Amino acid sequence: MQGYREAVSCSVASISRVRRGVREFARAGFSGQGLTDVELAVGEALANSAEHGRAAEIRIHCWFTRISLVVEIQDDGEGFSDSSLLDRPRHPHDPAPRGYGLLIMRHSMDRVEFTDRGRRVRLTKLLTR
């Protein structure tokens, strides 16, 4: 599959560069709020890999299908010890100051799928015609 691919060390500079790279790639199919949604969801997924997964390396691959943009992010971190947490995102009215990344990803994208105890996330955004 063609598209945008990167493998980077888990650093603030690398994550920022990858986020910008995905945004530029996504411009081929999105603008405005759709583009913002993609960038936001990707940023949350990358931040989760770095902060919660304690990853050393993050690999990202983006591609377009006939109907969507697919962004797959995989890290070499610890993953979730309790992967059922991936199915129970924080409620939007929860007063806790943090922990909304999964909710943001699900709100911004049309499909969010986790595998390998959360070490791999596939984000899908349908193209608008």
Please characterize this protein's 3D structure:
It contains 3 helices and 5 strands; from the N terminus they run E-H-H-E-E-H-E-E. A 5-stranded antiparallel sheet has the order 1-2-3-5-4, with helices on one face. The protein is of the alpha+beta class.
What is the CATH-assigned architecture?
Answer: 2-Layer Sandwich
Q: Largest sheet, described in full?
A: 5 strands, antiparallel
Q: How would you name the CATH homologous superfamily?
A: Histidine kinase-like ATPase, C-terminal domain
Number of domains: 1
**Tally the helices: what do you get?**
3
What global shape is seen? Answer: globular
Describe how the helices and strands are arranged.
Blueprint (H helix, E strand, L loop, with lengths): L3 E6 L2 H15 L5 H20 L5 E8 L3 E8 L25 H8 L2 E5 L4 E7 L3
Antiparallel strand pairs: 1-2, 2-3, 3-5, 4-5
Question: What attributes does this structure have?
Answer:
Heat Shock Protein 90, single chain, 26% strand, 3 helices, 129 residues, alpha+beta, five-stranded antiparallel β-sheet
